[in-house]
C-alpha cells in the first residue's frame, strides 16, 4: 500500500477581496485523502465546497497553506505546470456537463488527449474505450444535443476518465438530472470506485453523499464533520 496521501492539505485558506472587505471562502482547512477513497464534500450553500474543489483541482490557488497533490507541492508550480498537472492528475465532472456542443461524443472524449502528443488513431482508440466504459459506444457519433442529460453526463465522465486521472472530481454531478438518471450515474461512480478509482464528489444531496465512504462537511469554510459512512452494497 502507498502510505502517502494523494491529497495533502495543511492550513489551506482562500480569501476573496470584495471592495474593502474580505470573504473567507476556506478557513485553514487541513485534510488528507488517500488513493482509492470515495469522498463527499457536503455543506450548505456558500460553505466553500466549490472553492475546495477548485483548489483540489488546481483551477485556483490557495491564499495560504500548503497543498501537496500526489507528492508534488502545488504552491511551487507555474501556470503551465499547473495546467499539465490538471491534465495528468484530475478528471473534472461538472453539473452542466461542459461538453463542446459542435463536437461528437467521440471528439469530446478525445479532446483531453490532444495535450498528450498522441496520434489520432491512438486517441480514437482510447476514447472509444472510455465510451465503452460508460456504456455509450453506440452514441459515439452523436452530438451533445442528440443525447439525453444522463448520456451527456456519461460522455463527460468518459472525457474525465480517458486520461486515466488519479482523481475524479465531480461538482454537483447529478444536479441537472432526474432521480432515475442520478441512480444510473451513481452506480457508475460506485463501479469506478470498486475498480480502484479515487472519487471526490461535491454535493448537497444526502442520497449522493450516502454512496461515498467518507463524508466531509464544510461550514463557513471550515471542516465541521469528517466521518466514515457505512455503505451497504448489494
Ligand atoms: N470569485 C469569488 N469572488 C468572491 N467571493 C467568492 C468567489 N467565489 C466564491 N466566493 C464566496 O466564497 C464562499 C464559498 O463559495 P463556494 O462557491 O465555494 O460555496 P459552495 O459551498 O460551493 O456553495 P453552493 O452550494 O451554493 O455551490 C461564498 O461566500 C462565496 O460567496
Ligand atoms: Mg458550489
Q: What does this entry show, briefly?
A:
This protein is an alpha/beta fold and 234 residues long. It is 31% helix and 28% strand. It starts with 6 loop residues before the first strand and ends in a 6-residue tail after the last strand.
Would you write up a description of this structure?
With 234 residues, the chain is of the alpha/beta class. The protein has one domain: Rossmann fold, CATH 3.40.50.300. The chain has seven helices and ten strands. It has a six-stranded mixed sheet with strand order 6-7-8-3-9-10, sandwiched between helices. A four-stranded antiparallel sheet has the order 2-1-4-5, covered by helices on one side. Strand 7, helix 6 (179-194) and strand 8 form a beta-alpha-beta unit. Adenosine-5'-triphosphate is lined by residues 16, 18, 23, 25, 43, 45-51, 204. Residues 16, 18, 23, 25, 43, 45-51, 204 line the site of adenosine-5'-triphosphate.
